[in-house]
Structure prediction request, 152 residues.
Amino acid sequence: MTPTFSIARQTPTTDDYARIIEAVGWRPRRPEAIEIALRNSCFSVCAVSDGTVVGFGRVIGDGGIHLYVTDIVVLPEFQRHGIGTAIVAALTRWVDEFPFPNTIVAVLPTPGLVSFYERHGYKVQPSHSPAMSRWINAKWPNTALEPTPTAP
Prediction:
């Protein structure tokens, strides 16, 4: 049966964020890092089903020139029902109304999701301009999320 859901213009709570990224197997994040990240979002939406947040997505950036569509995540039992599509559509409508011309909106899709984002108008970077990333202080899979002390 297809679940009923709505897309709400709201930021997920720290607990919802942690719960949902854990459910999909993403790297764990410290609560204080989640709080900072959520507070600094440009725009966020949540997918809500029966009063429970089952997915979310955010736009982050500098608010003027660069934006990044990120954290598109849906609980596994709610996937493949159009919820991720509705989240990305809501985020894309927001960036389409962004008031500044020549703003770049980027997304870093996980493997297998390139065509999903292409349906929303995002394009793969040309091979001479590949997207790149770097994990800082990555600890995976490590349950001890505290930084490793360094010698003075």
In short: The first strand starts at residue 6 and ends at 8.
